[in-house]
């Protein structure tokens, strides 16, 4: 007997040095970030940031999905942004909805498109990327 293939989606998101991977499958609306349910995730600022795509999409879209998001690297806010991007892109990929894409991009484009800015590398002759050692001729 051949079992029907279960639909599983893997989507990634990046922000600064944080990377996240969201595994999406049919379920009852359970969303976990690094094995922690999103409802009790701390700090609250990061939790609200991650919840944005879910609130924009509406409960009817994500209440039938289970998402396990694993985030590595960066600070807590960079991780929140990476998880947020992974969740938003997972919802877009799962529903294939153009209406949802326009809703996300009108609300905040960085939810679906990454921000390419990175830290500029330090150069020789100073303490940072642009700062140079002072010189005096007296």
Fold and architecture overview:
With 138 residues, the protein is of the alpha+beta class. It has 4 helices and 5 strands; from the N terminus they run ββββααβαα. The protein has a single domain, classed as Ribosomal Protein S5, domain 2 (2-Layer Sandwich). The chain has a 5-stranded mixed beta sheet with strand order 1-2-5-3-4. It is elongated, with a radius of gyration of 19 Å. The mean pLDDT is 90.
The domain tally reads: 1
Q: Sheet with the most strands?
A: 5 strands, mixed
Quaternary structure of the protein = single chain
* N-C termini distance: 89 Å
Note poorly predicted spans. none
| Total number of beta strands | 5
Residue-averaged pLDDT: 90
- Order of the strands making up the biggest sheet: 1-2-5-3-4
Helix content: 25-40%
Task: Find the CATH topology.
Answer: Ribosomal Protein S5, domain 2
Globally, the shape reads: elongated
Give Rg in angstroms.
19 Å
Helix count, DSSP H or I runs of 4 or more residues = 4
Which features would summarize this protein structure in a list?
138 residues; alpha+beta; Ribosomal Protein S5, domain 2; 4 helices; 5 strands
